[in-house]
Amino acid sequence: MCGGSGLGFDRDGGAEVENGREEEMRKKREKRGSLAGLVGRRDLGGGAADRPLKEAFSDLYNISRTRDASVAEVMCYANGSIFWDLHFRRLVNDQESQSLDSCMVLIYSTKVRGVGSDNLCWKPASSRGFTVSGFYHSLSPYTASYFPWKMLWQSKVPPRVAFFSWTAALGKILTIDNLRKRHFVVLEWCYMCKRCGESVDHLLLHSPFAMEMWSTVFCLFGICWVMP
């Protein structure tokens, strides 16, 4: 491209070419190295590594020779062992040596195979990868009690009966208290016993009609049971 003062690169065009070259070099580095491009941009897990390396060890990042270096560029793999060769513009001083020790301990505590391309890992189940069920269990609080869900869903009953039993066990059926939680304006009234107050436990366990029904079932099967 010809500029005003002779043969040269236009400013905008040169920037686009330069950005294209950087993008191509970044892709090559990612293909060449294991876990390439993670230094300074990803967490390695635990303690100071809850932040990116450039924030956890800002003093070392400031004296780094190649701040955008990929892991593949600083990781050396020889004789079945991995060692790290960090490049700095000068020797570290006494104040920075402690930070360097912490950084190296953090990096060496991370398991890297040394070969292969980058891939994302789901920490709760790294062997199986990310699953919706695994994400649900990581968000759900741990409870020691166990409900036989498989017995409920695999029983030979109509699907509507199984669905109602499931929602009732979760306390999600549309009783008056649950409707009010959804901001429905309804009268506080139990249609089974004609009294105020309708909840899941009251409707299915403690109302006079429910208690009579359960007592009949328990007597037929010879079960001694006390309602909670």
Automatic annotation (TrEMBL):
Report residue spans for region: Disordered.
Answer: 1-33
**Species for this entry:** Lithocarpus litseifolius
A single Pfam family it belongs to is: zf-RVT
**Protein name, entry field:** Reverse transcriptase zinc-binding domain-containing protein
Concerning InterPro entries, the annotation shows: RVT-Znf
Give me the stretches of Basic and acidic residues compositional bias. Answer: 9-27
In this chain the Reverse transcriptase zinc-binding domain maps to 130-214
Tell me the domain of life: Eukaryota
